[in-house]
Amino acid sequence: MNKFLRLITIMMVIAFAVPVSAFAEENNSEEENNGLALAPDAKSAILLEQDTGEILFDKNAHEKLPPASMTKIMTLLLIMEALDKGNLQKDEMIRVSERAASMGGSQIFLEAGEEMSVNDLLKGVAIASGNDASVALAERLAGSEEAFVKKMNERAKELKLENTHFQNSTGLPADNHYSTSYDMAMIANELLKYEAITDYTSVYEDYLRKGQDNEFWLVNTNKLVRFYPDVDGLKTGYTSEAKYCLTATAKRDDMRVIAVVMGAESPKERNTMVSGLLDYAFNQFETNKLFDRDEKITDIHLLKSKQKNVDIVTKQSISTLHKKGEEEKDIQTEVKLQDTWNLPVKRGDEVGKLYVKDGEQVLYEIPLTVEEDIEKTTYFSLLKRTVQEMVKSR
């Protein structure tokens, strides 16, 4: 039995081009960022490559600031997680409460008592930044917006984000409601693991209640979706205190980057600075894909599970990042699985790690999971399987 549950180490030497040079550290001045004059008029900014999590540029990335409607990135993350777990269905109809309908600011003008599908409410949040749609979904998932906000803050702690605290699901002005450009990038990175989110955030215009008297035209608040090639999200924000904010993402070839700007004085300045960050990323860096999300990395034989052989897959796509024109090096990957398996195990539960290494130096650690839910086998199936194993070993 132990031989099937012991620590598994697999060394795979992959000839991919990658440098070992360090990328931009988390710095707070143009000098420390090698003189890069990116996002000069932002209070805070960051540029991140998604697969590796490498920070390519930052400015005051850990300064606590009001995130305005970029708050909804966390709201969207909890919605996508609920959809992925089957706790929410896109075709489910949600009845809008008086409270949700009363939300001010950006909205899709929901009426109290109106019923709208999760899919359309998700459009309302992702495209038009609807505060009413956000609260309607929050109430459905947690019973009240207050309970949902508690889940938002718990999720931030799980992501080890120390400089974020939410008071609502919308980003409307509130005391003690703050985040940072770094934390926003981390939440966006987690959200983008659910690739279907860009089916919503990449849409420039759409309609709700199509053909009805109260038809509503949705226009994306993120104009870069239309005017910057490859941008397919993610979320704008504005209040008089926060000024103009944007978390944007773009994917070119196999490289996806996330850019955050907070505290710009105008939408034009905000979009110009984000565009400059994206230009810098795509002009200076490129990635080499190692594995796609959910790709099989290895398998394991579990005697006590219903499935004798269990496929181990990645929880995210895996790449290496390097500056264009830099020296090529070989990459090794090492898989370490847990040595004790307590069944059942759910898809998405971490069961080990994939280490991407340059020699003895660990560059990245990526969680591994199982391809499907693993249930414990019955007593009689286990007995039969044990006998078969004994016969084979003779």
Automatic annotation (TrEMBL):
Q: Per UniProt, what is one GO molecular function of this protein? A: serine-type D-Ala-D-Ala carboxypeptidase activity
Its recorded reaction(s) are: Preferential cleavage: (Ac)2-L-Lys-D-Ala-|-D-Ala. Also transpeptidation of peptidyl-alanyl moieties that are N-acyl substituents of D-alanine
Write the Enzyme Commission number(s) for this entry.
3.4.16.4
Source organism, top-level taxon: Bacteria
Gene3D superfamilies membership: D-Ala-D-Ala carboxypeptidase, C-terminal domain, DD-peptidase/beta-lactamase superfamily
Q: Which Pfam families match?
A: PBP5_C (PF07943), Peptidase_S11 (PF00768)
Q: Which GO terms describe its biological process?
A: cell wall organization; peptidoglycan biosynthetic process; proteolysis; regulation of cell shape
What are the Peptidase S11 D-Ala-D-Ala carboxypeptidase A C-terminal domain coordinates in residue numbering?
A: 285-376
Annotated residues for binding of substrate: 235
Please name the catalytic residues of this protein: 69 (acyl-ester intermediate), 72 (proton acceptor), 129
Q: Which SMART domains match?
A: PBP5_C
Region forming the signal peptide: 1-24
Q: Which InterPro entries match?
A: Beta-lactam/transpept-like (IPR012338), Peniciliin-bd_prot_C_sf (IPR015956), Peptidase_S11 (IPR018044), Peptidase_S11_C (IPR012907), Peptidase_S11_C_sf (IPR037167), Peptidase_S11_N (IPR001967)
Pathway the protein acts in: Cell wall biogenesis; peptidoglycan biosynthesis
What this protein is reported to do is described as: Removes C-terminal D-alanyl residues from sugar-peptide cell wall precursors.
Give the record's family classification.
Belongs to the peptidase S11 family.
Name of this chain's protein: serine-type D-Ala-D-Ala carboxypeptidase
Which lineage is the organism of this entry classified under, starting from the top rank?
A: Bacteria, Bacillati, Bacillota, Bacilli, Bacillales
